[in-house]
Amino acid sequence: MSKYGIQKSVELSYQDTVDKVKNELKTEGFGVLAEIDMKKTFKDKLEKDMNNYVILEACNPAFAFEGIEEEPELGLLLPCNVIVFEDDEKVNVAAIDPVKALGMSENEKVNEIAEEINSRLERVIESV
Asked: What would you measure as the largest C-alpha separation in the chain, in angstroms?
């Protein structure tokens, strides 16, 4: 567990990890809205090199709809980011902890949604 969410190192290659994460997200009802290659972005924009690092913006449409209906400002905290990155010859995968991210809400229904999303993201990370 990181201070931001759920994290672990894996024994897979970087690309295999990205592929596995996408498949596991799909299994748990998430779609990937965007895939941001930070290594490429920093190289293109800043001429800086870094290890492989991707941000997957994941969304479960049913829960997003339900949450936004409850609290329209919830969109400020969506989607759920999942990252895959290399560090010191390890490949790591992590997902935001939605309970922490949505913890600002005092709406009990939003908190219940956050708990369910957290359970699903924990399963994604554990399955990789």
From this structure: 46
